[in-house]
Amino acid sequence: MHEGYSAMMVHVLVLFLLLQSQNSVSLWEYRHTESSNEPQLICEATVPSDVTDLSFLDERRLVASFSNGCVALFKYQRMRKVLLNM
Questions:
Q1: Which residue has the higher pLDDT, 9 or 22?
Q2: In the chain, how long is the greatest CA-to-CA distance?
Q3: Which of 45, 58, 70, 73 could anchor a disulfide with 83, C-beta 3.0 to 4.6 Å?
Q4: How many domains does the chain have?
Q5: What are the beta bridge partners of residue 64?
Q6: Cut 0.70: pTM above it
Q7: Could you tell me if residue 5 is inside a domain?
Q8: What pLDDT score does 63 carry?
């Protein structure tokens, strides 16, 4: 279980692609509780074009490829709640 989470909560980190006029990779958190069943946006990072593939290296790092041929490594910093493009 991740630091700072209650043992009573079920939590799942979900990566969500937000498709708007500006492309981004977003990290969402889902906690199923008695009072809420909605995902919460944790952070997001702007990306250069459409995402074609994603792969988690571990719980804090992921690699994304884009339709323009680029590849990016992202690192999630839990304490600051940011997704950094390395």
A1: 22
A2: 44
A3: 45
A4: 1
A5: 54, 72
A6: no
A7: no
A8: 92
How is residue 10 written in tokens?
A: 């079920």
Label residues 26-50 b or e (16+ Cβ within 10 Å = b).
bbbbeeeeeeeeeeeebbbbebeee
Q: Which domain holds residue 25?
A: 10-85
In a domain, 42, yes or no: yes
Name 44's bridge partners: 26
**Any domain includes 67:** yes
What is the pLDDT, as a whole number, of residue 5?
Answer: 44
Contact present, 42 and 29 (Cβ < 8 Å): yes
Whether residue 2 lies inside any domain: the answer is: no
Answer yes or no: are the C-beta atoms of 54 and 45 closer than 8 Å. no
Strand residues in 1-86 grouped as ranges (E): 10-18, 24-32, 40-46, 51-56, 61-66, 71-77, 82-85
